[in-house]
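Request:
You are asked to prepare a plain-text protein record giving the amino acid sequence and the backbone structure tokens, at your earliest convenience.
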Amino acid sequence: MTTLAWTDKLVLNQPTLDHTHQEFVELLNAYGEALDAGIDALPAYQALLAHTEAHFAMEEDWMARCGFEAQNCHASQHAMVLNVMREALRYANELNDREPLNILRTELAGWFPQHAEMMDAALVFTMEQRGFDPVTGECREPATVGDSHSCGSGSCA
């Protein structure tokens, strides 16, 4: 059973981010397949966590270069997801309780499309508006710090 299908709705037309998102979906599915097969899913989960840490760090670097506020709801959402993922890993390792890992499979599959379609799409829009090139890290129209909010609009609710 596929945990999360890669669909056109997840494509943001930003090649680096689309590739990273596709990797996230593949790793989430590999984790789900390990759970379904009844094998030790911990290595697949650890690979998903490592990818997610790098994925979010990349996006947050882009946000900083585009002028997003240091503390914004997009980055805060990343921090919350990573906190839960790390805590689930701690439960598995220290308490031998893998139930939180099982729950996260479904939760991540539900959360990710919404996050990509709203917050990541707004980041891509801001990057395009400011002429930010993620390959070079250069921005045609750099914003002043605090000029943009996490959702890409003028305010965050």
Q: What stands out?
A: Helices lie at 15-37, 42-66, 73-94, 99-130. The two ends are 37 Å apart (CA to CA).
